[in-house]
Amino acid sequence: MPSQPPTEPSAPSAGSASSGPPEPPAALWRPGPERVGKAQLTRFHRWAAEHHGAPAPVAGDPEANYAALHRWSVAPDGGLERFWRAAAEWFDVRFSSPYETVLADAAMPGGRWFPGARLNYAEHALRDAGTAAGPALLHVAEGGEPQPVSRAELRAQVGSLAAELRRLGVRPGDRVGAYLPNIPQAVVALLATAAVGAVWTSCSPDFGARSVLDRFRQVEPVVLVTVDGYRYGGKEHDRRETVAELRRELPTLRAVVHVPLLGTPPPEGALEWDALVATGAAPVFEQVPFDHPLWVLYSSGTTGLPKAIVQSQGGILLEHLKQLALHCDLGPGDRFFWYTSTGWMMWNFLVSGLLVGATVITYDGSPGYPDVGAQWRVAERTEATFFGTSAAYVMACRKADVHPGRDLDLTRVRCVATTGSPLPPDGFRWIHDEFHRADPADPAGPADMWIASVSGGTDVCSCFAGAVPTLPVHVGELQAACLATDLQAWDPAGEPVTDEVGELVVTQPMPSMPVRFWNDPDGERYRDSYFSTYPGVWRHGDWITLTSRGSVVIHGRSDSTLNRQGVRMGSADIYEVVERLPEVRESLVIGVEEPGGGYWMPLFVQLTTGARLDDGLRDRIRAALREQLSPRHVPDEVIEVEGVPHTLTGKRLEVPVKRMLQGTPLEKAVNPGSVDRVDLLRFYERMARSRG
């Protein structure tokens, strides 16, 4: 049975079950008429109304227009088919073989998209090599200056490497693994792999050997592209021993390609990168079925082997075109930055900026070196127009009293986007205040910095809700559900709710949903991951509120819900309040059911430099939670910790820590190879023993 949702959403706009729809809050930001008119979404809407039966937009009412377009895109009488047919035509998707129908089977799991069609993702990423404005890539190494890679250079390198992969015997469906940071060579290797019709999979070189092997052993790569090391935080990190272990433990490898990022010679038997990309061969794009695997992404793997998630060439192509052009409003002339590593889905999403003709900015380095303002300086030096980062980074900047809007020239940035966790209300306000640029002709007018908090998942390599360039932004809210995403909030009985907290579900298929999990022949693990609670409906595992205005509030993971005295609460609400205090760097709240019916809710806090957890700070933490949330949100104990443990992609380890506090040994509660700092978990292990 599904768990009960939190009953006290703290976001002011979420309202409550008993009070009915809340009064509409004032918008923090609202796009002006010129911005709305120029948005690709606006142009697509007019065109779809003329050619595909979408509702005609009404002049001067972008909110009603988006709501109508979204309803049309998910209408039960064929909305998905109409929308995706229109999108494929609008984006000029090159089908080398025509499709028979858009959606042959709408079942979940098992949706069949565009049967009969053949295409190639890499062909679309490189098709504007001679026409799009600006370089294809703009690379920044830690402490370095931006280095451009032209579109012609990128195309030539991809063609050369694809030819060499074929020479090595790589065929469609074979796997190519990469142990690379966010560098141009990784982009080249991904596109060359896709051009061949092989299947890409990657890990960041900060992953240890065990973490990489937990992933790559599942998919059995035939080629491994790897660096000798990387630079991070002002230091060089040699990974040659790790690479040697990977070579020993991956028996399916036929070839290893050496990228000398630290300048070392290739190890015995390895091929040199520069030689493989220098032949100048024109790219040949294998035409593959729409549902042919493009890449394998991985879940965090905190409680076992990571899920090996297979997504298709066609599904990712269409979904990313929609997200990047219509939702992010990116196109030729834009410079697209998102701080990420190759071990996170946002890297794949970033590379897809090439699909819409944008310049992709790759950054290899620490997000906070030499200081917390590092990412903003990358944006300044590259003249980024779209700046993507994590909510945690925004809050760290706020706490560190960083002022990028005042101290740097970021006038080209027109959108700051965040993901990874819900952006707290204070994060919205900080970005807004930091980048307020009033119209000189109207000093009382709104700031023109669009703030896009987005939410999705590795599972779909996309967003369920988030950026809409024509809609207002409200504090603490995602602007709307994405087009052709039938996002709903459901109560435990499987009924949709509005202005109440419910489970995040998607009731119709998306093209980028996994075609399968690797080594899951009967699909049992796939079904258990998303469809066991509501058969035939995707349950993502988040608590959300879908407001009557169409915006979305994320409350946190439903599998780590807090429950005190029968009241269920989302952990994100508590973090937002606690981490507003200047002394608290990060926090972790856990609810532990105890034998005999007791319930223990400790709050663990990592303090900022120089802060002390004395009775005064404890009292202020408790008072803030009591006043801003409710007495039930006040923890039983406030405990100082050295740091908060995360997955390798930055998620707080709530569920594994809870299991440890309930007595599960560390090795059974969590896969140590999936954790950023295993040593931090020893504290909770000792605490569990002491509580006995």
Account of the 3D structure:
- This protein has 692 residues and is an alpha/beta fold.
- The protein contains 22 helices and 35 strands.
- Strands 5-4-17-16-18-19-20 form a seven-stranded mixed β-sheet, sandwiched between helices. Strands 7-6-8-11-12 form a five-stranded parallel β-sheet, with helices on both faces.
- Strand 29 and strand 30 form a beta hairpin.
- It is globular, with a radius of gyration of 24 Å.
Topology:
Elements: H1 33-38, H2 40-52, H3 62-74, H4 79-90, E1 103-105, E2 112-113, E3 118-119, H5 121-126, E4 137-141, E5 147-149, H6 151-167, E6 175-179, H7 184-196, E7 199-203, H8 209-219, E8 223-227, E9 229-232, E10 235-238, H9 240-249, E11 255-259, E12 271-272, H10 273-276, E13 288-289, E14 293-298, E15 308-312, H11 313-327, E16 335-338, H12 345-351, E17 359-364, H13 374-382, E18 386-390, H14 391-399, H15 404-407, E19 415-419, H16 425-434, E20 450-453, E21 455-457, E22 462-466, E23 480-481, E24 487-490, E25 501-506, E26 516-517, H17 524-530, E27 538-546, E28 552-557, E29 562-564, E30 567-569, H18 571-578, E31 584-589, E32 592-593, E33 599-600, E34 602-607, H19 615-628, E35 637-640, H20 654-661, H21 666-669, H22 681-691
Parallel strand pairs: 4-17, 6-7, 6-8, 8-11, 11-12, 16-17, 16-18, 18-19, 19-20, 34-35
Antiparallel strand pairs: 1-2, 3-13, 4-5, 9-10, 14-15, 15-26, 21-22, 22-23, 24-25, 25-27, 27-28, 29-30, 31-34, 32-33
